[in-house]
Amino acid sequence: MVAGGDGTINEVINGLFAGGQLEQQPVVVGIPVSTGNDWARNRDLNLSISELSKKVAEPTYQTCDVGRVSGVQDGNSWEHYFCNSIGIGLDVCVLKNLPRRPRWKFCRAQS
User: How many domains are contained in the chain?
Assistant: First the structure.
């Protein structure tokens, strides 16, 4: 069970898969408490706290593909796992050209 947003899910997925082959499929329960929450929204988990509590009490499981990208930079090999999306830099170029909007300093939980 992990509380956070897309970046937190990304870190958890990389931590789970970084050691190589897993003996069984992991179960990740994401509690969305961030500003974007694409991962949670795509799985209908962007719910109020009471609705989320019901889902935890009576779980349903959804499979999620995990991708891996690897490469070599400065003579060092690296690999990265992803389950939400992957970009090749175009998305960053678009975001840099968008006007800045204020972000919430603290997340607001719904009841």
Answer: 1
**Burial of 47 (C-beta count, 10 Å sphere; 0-12/13-18/19+):** middle
Residues with Cβ < 8 Å from 103, sequence gap 6 or more?
A: 35
Residue 26, in any domain of the structure: yes
Q: Are 86 and 12 in contact (CB under 8 A)?
A: no
DSSP state of 63: -
Residue 53 belongs to a domain: yes
Q: What is the chain's length?
A: 111
pTM for the model stands at 0.67
**Sorting pLDDT into bands at 50, 70 and 90, what band is 3?**
confident
